[in-house]
Structures are given as structure tokens and as C-alpha cells.
Design a protein that fits this description.
CATH superfamily of the largest domain: Tetratricopeptide repeat domain
Number of helices: 21
Oligomer: single chain
CATH topology of the largest domain: Serine Threonine Protein Phosphatase 5, Tetratricopeptide repeat
Distance between the termini: 76 Å
Number of domains: 4
Largest sheet: 7 strands, mixed
Strand content: 25-35%
Length: 689
């Protein structure tokens, strides 16, 4: 029997950069209108409401509603959702018991609204004296986690003695509203209003109940008095938004942003994350994007004494015009035995990976999904990659740990520089008396600066310099990679800033970077880390990646150089050959492209791209019959493709077979009649007859 096991790690919040445009409320079908305007009207956040109104199909709405309840489920992974059950019980109770004597349903009354939001009061005090209007005082235990008072009370009264109970405000109502006008004289001025409130307060305290009199001024037991009316008003405002604090709204933004993926995979369980992204230059000169992502939790599937998950990452890098420069998907299976699980269950989960990138300014979008349990999270980061020869200092990477003799130095891993394997601190928080490792790079450092340059490490606490270290660049093995280790033995708990400055021979600052960190006396569990292992940097795959990035960026000559390098290293790789041929086609080197592709034909007769490119090279070199053969074979595997149909027609036309040319072009027009150039060609051939 298959079970689901859920482990919740450190809670974090995601600052989502996705913003909602102004929206117009659609005419929702009945059940969805009832859901948002009646069933969840008191607990749905404004952002969730905006997202819901932006959904376009009932399927999307159903998936969102499912995710809405799942985000509030106190025991995810179990068949029951206790929050949802309790919510609908409260609505039922309100309708049965809190709408009596009122023309509206119980859920719409003030008492119903509060009951649905806060639940059953700890205690209810009722006052039915003939000398005052009917009054109830509800006592609640607050949740300090959400900024509430430990104990607070809310007062309801029947205005003028009839109708539904209304929520009482110590500020805008005042004690006078609880006492009939036959007992209290009607006020004629502000002074008389204040006087009436004081007289009503004395009346309540002397004739009815001291506790009720105090409740008429303050929502805070044992903190009673006129000065507490304004704080009470603030508390009542917080009560109105109390349900919003129980949910992280970011999932709603992500649901809207990724709903095309959600529709396909039903991966609608969004979890938040915290991440770090760094650009690091390898000793070969290549730049790599290194990322670390910590999902709020990782759920494991239990089957046959094994705990498993499968991490799928979908990554896309775009330029300022939203053109795709690079994209990649990876699947990483995770499998743990029971003993392994014991070692990691209380520790946060870190997933790390890296990929090469060409110079430029980009946006990284990463979607990470646990395909076993349908949880997903995402991140968006701006990244800047300098030119190889440009002079620049990288951002500082603060780390909990560094392995200075990594056994994986022959392969490529995230946050690995030569023999150094760095384990970044995600929150830049370090234990008292622990160690802080710092890594950074200086690109394009000249020999002169390398000889006379000085590095100054300055630590600040509350803007006052706390500690300083001076090192000469000549002391380091590398003039690009800099790693320092600092003892925190004398650093008391608190917040700090570290600044690293490159100084010239005269101690003038050339460039600097700074980073915040903190020292904590709390126990900080070390994460368990899953890191993808990639090939060494001289592997052909990196030239393949970079070549396609240059091609997507419009840098054709650079693309050609890298793709030729990949194909030369691995001449039997079809993907490398096709990418190289693609750039040769752009450069109009058709014979070269054909020579690259032809050796693959015998073993890949069903490959559409191969057949299409061979057809293109044959057409451009005047081998029209051969081109038609390749094109028709490509269509047999892909179906009718307009561009290929039009190319076949052109080949027939150049062979002088106009009947077949017209026939193929007419087939093309059946698929897309809005092709004016094709229409003119057909008309021209008909006129020639």
C-alpha cells in the first residue's frame, strides 16, 4: 500500500515579482459566484480574489479552488482537510443560530461574520436587562503569532432594541448606544455626546455590570479606560484581516503565471522557496550560473521500504525583449532508505545546479516540481554576465562550509571552483563561535594591479567598524578567485555588514562589494544537499549550449565557432550536427551543411529536422528533385507544414512542373488562405497558360 510522507522544513516567504493588472470582474457561473461571494467571502484574500477573477475557464477555477483549500490544510497529505470542514461547519452554524430575528441569513450578520472568521468564542456573556438594549460579549483567545492580544473581547448589541445583533465599536458607538434614549437624554452638541457617553458608562457600571461597562470602552480585559478606545478600534481592524494571515498569497500569483503548465500537469500545489543565484567564472574563462533553491518542504512517497521523490526543473533564460536565450529541463530522482531519512528529516532540503551562459543581462525563470507529489515552486532572478576581459568584482558568497579538496574536481558542480566546493549560506546566518567563509572573484585584473593590489575586509556592527583584515593580492594563489575564512569567536550575536575593497598601492579604493550577515545563538541545522554533477568544462556539450545561446542572441559568427567545436569533438552526435548545420544554413553555406548532415540519414530516416534541413540544402544547391524527396519524407512524419509545402511547390516550379506546383500551393492555401504571395504565384502561372 502506497502512503505519502510529508516533511515541512523552514518556513520562508517569497517576494513575488509578478504583478496583477487591473481586472474586470467576469460574469461567473452560479456555483463559482456563490463560492467567492458567499462561501469564502470572509477568508479569501484580496490577491486571491483578483487571481480568481482573472481565470478564464471552469477547469482553471476548479483547480484554483482545490489549491485554495490545500493551502489552508493543516495536515497536507491526509484524506481530510480539517480547515475546510471547520469552515463549512461554521457557515452552517451561523445560518442556523445567528440569523434569528433578522431578515438576512446568519452568515451575513455581524455575529455570523465573526463566528466564521474566528470560530467558537471561549465564553459568551449575555445581558437582557430591560434597562439596556440586548448585548452579548464574546471572549476570544488571540494568537500572538499574528500580532493579536492574548485575550480580547468583541461586543454585539441590538441597535434600538430590535433586528440583528451588530458589532459594537467603542470609538464610533460609545456606551450611550447601549442605553435606551428614554433613560439617556438625546444629545444636542459634541460636548453633550461626550457627557452622555460618560453618564452611560456610569449607568452600566452601577446598574448593570462592571464588566459590561469596561467592555463598552475596551476590547482588552484588564486594560480598561477611555484611552483604550482607539487601540480597540485597531484590534477590530486586525480581526477583519485575521484569516488572511493564515495563508501565504504567493501561490495565487504563481498559479496565474503558470496556469498553462498547471492545466497540463495538475501540479497545483504551490510551495514557497528561498534561493541564491550566483554567476561564477570557471578557470577556462566560461561563466556559469550557479543556483541553490530551498523549497519550503519536500514530500516523499513511501513504497516498499523506500522514500522517493523526483525533482523536475524547467529553466528558461530570456533577454530584455523576452527572447529565449537558453532553456533546459532536467529530472533528478531522489531515493532514501529509512536510516538515511532519519538523518535528514529535520534538516532543510537544498537543490543545486549550474549551467554555462554567454555575456549579457538576462532574467532566469526556474520552475521546480516534485513530480511524485505534484508540488511545485518557482523563482525569477535577474543575472548579469560580464565580458571575459572586463574588469569587475563579483558579488560576495558567504558560506557555512568549504571543502578545500573536493573529490569531484574533475567534473563540474554548482558552487565548485577547482578543488574548492563551496556550500553557500542561504540566509547568511552563522552560529556563534562558528566560521564564516567568503568567496568572490575579480575579473580582468591586470598584472600591475595584481602585484600592488590590496584587499581590505571590513566588518561593521551598527554602522561602526568592528573588525578589519588587510591582505595583499600577491598572497593568493589566483588573481581571480579569492577565498577567506573568518572565525566568529569574538563576534557576539547580532547583525553585521562585511565590505571587501580592492585598493591600489596608495590605498585608494578601486572597487568594492558588501554583504549583510548575522550571527545567531540559535541552533542552525545544516541542510541536506542534492547537487547535479555535470561533465568537465572541456566537454563538447558546453560548446553546444553556448553556440545555441549565441545563435538565439543573433551572434552568428560566434555561434558558428562554438557549434563547429562541439561537432568536431563529437562528430557522431546528431543534435550537435543539426545545430551546426542550422547556423551554416543561416550563413548560406549549404554544401557544408549537407556534408555535415548526410552521414546521419541512414540511421535517422524518421527525423523530421534532419530531413527538412537536407531538403533545404538540396533546394539551395539546385537539386530540386532530391529536395522534393526529402521534403515529402519529412511531411510523412510531421503532417502538412506550410513552409515545407510552399518549398515543394517552389521546387516543382523551378523544375518546370507548374501543374504540380499549383496543386501543392493550393493545398497550402487550404490550410492558410491568407498567403498573398502564394496566391500571386498561382495567378501568375495561370496567366502564363
Amino acid at each position: 500500500m502506497r502512503k505519502k510522507l510529508f516533511f515541512t522544513f523552514l518556513s520562508i516567504s517569497l517576494i513575488c515579482s509578478f504583478s496583477l493588472q487591473a481586472y474586470k470582474k467576469p460574469n461567473l457561473p452560479g456555483k463559482y459566484k456563490k463560492w467567492i461571494k458567499e462561501e469564502v467571502v470572509y477568508i479569501i484574500t484580496p490577491k486571491e480574489k483578483e487571481v480568481f477573477y482573472k481565470l478564464e475557464t471552469d477547469k482553471e477555477r476548479d483547480l484554483f479552488i482545490e489549491e485554495f483549500w490545500r493551502q489552508r490544510d493543516p495536515t497536507p497529505g491526509t484524506p481530510r482537510n480539517e480547515f475546510k470542514e471547520e469552515h463549512y461547519r461554521r457557515i452552517s452554524y451561523a445560518n442556523k443560530n445567528l440569523g434569528r430575528g433578522s431578515p438576512i441569513n446568519g452568515w451575513r450578520t455581524d455575529r455570523g461574520r465573526i463566528y466564521i472568521k474566528l470560530g467558537e468564542p471561549m465564553q459568551i456573556m449575555r445581558y437582557d436587562s430591560m434597562e439596556i438594549y440586548p448585548v452579548e460579549t464574546w471572549y476570544y483567545q488571540g494568537n500572538p503569532k499574528f500580532g493579536q492580544a492574548p485575550i480580547f473581547r468583541l461586543l454585539f448589541f441590538k441597535k434600538y432594541g430590535g433586528g440583528a445583533y451588530e458589532l459594537y465599536s467603542p470609538m464610533s458607538d460609545g456606551p450611550k448606544k447601549l442605553v435606551p434614549s428614554s433613560i439617556m437624554q438625546r444629545p444636542e452638541s459634541d460636548i453633550q455626546i461626550e457627557w452622555q457617553d460618560k453618564m452611560a458608562y456610569k449607568f452600566l457600571k452601577g446598574r448593570i455590570s462592571t464588566e459590561l461597562a469596561e467592555a463598552s470602552l475596551s476590547c482588552f480585559p484588564k486594560r480598561d479606560g477611555w484611552e483604550f478606545r482607539l487601540p480597540s478600534e485597531t484590534l477590530m481592524g486586525e480581526v477583519r484581516t485575521y484569516p488572511y494571515k493564515k495563508v501565504q498569497e504567493d501561490y495565487a500569483y504563481d498559479f496565474l503565471e503558470h496556469k498553462p503548465i498547471v492545466e497540463v500537469s495538475y501540479s497545483v500545489y504551490y510551495i514557497s522557496n528561498q534561493a541564491k543565484v550566483s554567476v561564477i567564472q570557471d578557470k577556462s574563462g566560461l561563466f556559469f550560473v550557479n543556483y541553490l533553491i530551498e523549497p519550503e518542504k519536500l514530500s516523499l512517497d513511501f513504497y516498499q521500504d523506500k522514500y522517493s521523490a523526483n525533482i523536475k526543473t524547467s529553466m528558461r533564460v530570456t533577454d530584455s525583449k523576452d527572447n529565449t536565450i537558453f532553456q533546459q529541463e532536467r529530472n533528478v530522482p531522489i531515493e532514501l532508505k529509512k536510516e538515511q531519512l532519519k538523518n535528514v528529516r529535520q534538516r532543510p532540503f537544498h537543490f543545486c545546479d549550474s549551467f554555462p551562459i554567454i555575456p549579457g543581462d538576462y532574467t532566469l525563470n526556474l520552475l521546480m516540481e516534485n513530480t511524485v507529489t505534484k508540488e511545485f515552486t518557482s523563482l525569477e532572478k535577474n543575472i548579469s554576465v560580464p565580458e571575459r576581459e572586463s574588469f569587475q568584482m563579483s558579488d560576495l558568497i558567504l558560506a557555512d562550509k568549504v571543502n578545500k579538496d573536493s573529490p569531484y574536481n574533475q567534473v563540474n558542480k554548482a558552487f565548485q571552483i577547482g578543488k574548492f566546493q563551496i556550500y553557500p549560506s542561504l540566509r547568511n546566518t552563522f552560529p556563534v563561535k562558528g566560521k564564516l567563509f567568503m568567496f568572490f572573484q575579480i575579473y580582468g585584473l591586470s598584472q600591475e594591479r595584481g602585484k600592488e593590489g590590496i584587499l581590505e575586509f571590513s566588518f561593521y556592527k551598527q554602522e561602526k567598524r568592528f573588525h578589519t583584515l588587510i591582505r595583499e593580492i600577491s598572497e593568493y594563489e589566483s588573481t581571480c578567485d579569492f577565498l577567506e575564512e573568518f572565525s566568529l569567536e569574538k563576534f557576539p550575536p547580532g547583525k553585521y555588514v562585511v565590505k571587501v575593497s580592492l585598493l591600489d598601492g596608495e590605498r585608494k579604493e578601486i572597487v568594492s562589494k558588501r554583504e549583510n550577515f548575522s550571527v545567531s545563538s540559535k541552533f542552525l541545522p545544516l541542510p541536506w544537499i542534492v547537487t547535479e554533477t555535470n561533465p568537465p568544462v572541456d566537454d563538447a556539450i558546453y560548446s553546444f549550449y553556448l553556440g545555441n545561446q549565441f545563435l538565439n542572441n543573433g551572434e552568428i559568427e560566434k555561434a558558428c565557432g562554438e557549434l563547429e567545436k562541439a561537432w568536431t569533438k563529437e562528430p557522431d552526435m546528431l543534435d550537435y550536427a543539426i545545430s551546426y548545420a542550422r547556423v551554416l544554413l543561416v550563413l548560406k553555406k549549404f554544401k557544408d551543411a549537407q556534408e555535415v548532415l548526410f552521414p546521419f540519414l541512414e540511421a535517422n530516416k524518421a527525423n523530421f529536422t534532419l530531413l527538412y534541413y537536407l531538403g533545404k540544402t538540396s533546394q539551395e544547391t539546385g537539386k530540386f528533385e532530391e529536395a522534393i524527396s526529402y521534403y515529402r519524407e519529412a511531411l510523412s512524419h510531421k503532417g502538412n507544414v506550410l513552409e515545407i509545402l510552399n518549398s515543394i511547390g517552389e521546387c516543382y516550379h523551378l523544375l518546370g512542373d507548374n501543374n504540380n506546383a499549383v496543386q501543392v500551393w493550393q493545398k497550402s492555401l487550404e490550410i492558410n488562405p491568407n498567403q498573398e504571395k502564394i496566391k500571386k504565384k498561382i495567378e501568375g502561372l495561370k496567366e502564363e497558360k
